[in-house]
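Crash report, auto-generated. Payload:
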Amino acid sequence: MTGWLCIVGLGPGDSALVTPEVSAVLASASDVVGYIPYVARIAPRQGLTLHPSDNRVEMDRARAALEMAAAGKKVVVVSSGDPGVFAMASAVFEALEGQVQWQALDIRVLPGITAMLAASAKAGAPLGHDFCVVNLSDNLKPVALIEARVRAAAGADFALAFYNPRSASRPETFGRILTVLRQVCEPERLIIFARAVSTPNEQIVTVALVDASPEMADMRTVVIVGNSATRRVGRFVYTPRSVLPVTA
Amino acid sequence: MTGWLCIVGLGPGDSALVTPEVSAVLASASDVVGYIPYVARIAPRQGLTLHPSDNRVEMDRARAALEMAAAGKKVVVVSSGDPGVFAMASAVFEALEGQVQWQALDIRVLPGITAMLAASAKAGAPLGHDFCVVNLSDNLKPVALIEARVRAAAGADFALAFYNPRSASRPETFGRILTVLRQVCEPERLIIFARAVSTPNEQIVTVALVDASPEMADMRTVVIVGNSATRRVGRFVYTPRSVLPVTA
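Recovered output after restart:
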């Protein structure tokens, strides 16, 4: 029996956003590995073993998945959104470092609908021009680096998407980022808080930067900051394709 | 009859990357509007009228779609990839400016797998840390702004994804961007040229920045530039999650 490992994205929550490619590998898997709430999205069936694990054990999880694939299992590592955006794909490749026997395995990454694109679609098209994507979690990088990147990106008038803006263990980071944004951007700059996108608890709120507060975000929120041209039209928020003024 | 308008992403090419949500609206549409090669991906059927149009007529296409929806048609505007990333969603919202009668229409944006995420998955996980996304087309913005943004993003050690890197009408822009990158990044920086991802003509090539040349890209290519930590492991390219050194 030849094992394989697929690192897949389940999209933001709605099963109608799971690609057929991902559904097909889940249907042929023997083992599913991932963070508890993501594994909970997989329907149990005969012949499929579910391996839910807690947050912040990404490296253990990646090694366990590789070991199972090496032993002949058909293993799917699940992430929400896209597996390559602040999710399990990089962790699996880190686990391959120095492990030549694992590097020869059949390993594939299957993309998914990442949260910022689902959020952008619900709001309109705030990422319709150049944009930057920043993980605000400071587990794996210093807050000073996050601040410097946000300052550079906003200074160059990119729109911004923030993942993991706020957690109970480090509630202050997002407040510092809002301070940076207020130093660089005008008070009217539009900022979108998109929580639990594509789930029954979905909530999309757009405010001016001057009215934004850290409490508007939690770990299930993706935050999108427009560029200087981002605007409302009717109930939508969008960023024009051109840097020239919009003519109606 | 109540019309509606859905602006959808077909993903990069493979039908296994079209979300069920998008397939469902296509199945209930009366009219499909879009650029010729994207409309060509829609199977003809009774009751469905296809409206292919040429490139660079995005505003005419958006207005035509809105007119049809206002007349009671069930209209799908198709883009490749995600409709909100350098695609039709912003054009439709631009067409809504000043058109209050159209703003009340049932308009939805449905996300898709954008090219950079499909390309990243094929290569490994080069976008596993903070990254910026830049449209290199200078149809709607000056090349100097593109250069300034690339300089700012690379200077802050973001990974980068470039859409529309090169066309026959402006072959020199991408060469100028490579020059900017060589001024900011080390010669060994990894750069991925992902052409026609998820199609039979797919080609993924990774080289060091010093070996990159403008001819490696065309309009069907997405270019991904790693950050300073992006590395190879086995046949994969990935960006570590942490800014601290990788320990095997």
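Post-recovery validation: Chain B is about 30% helix and 25% strand.
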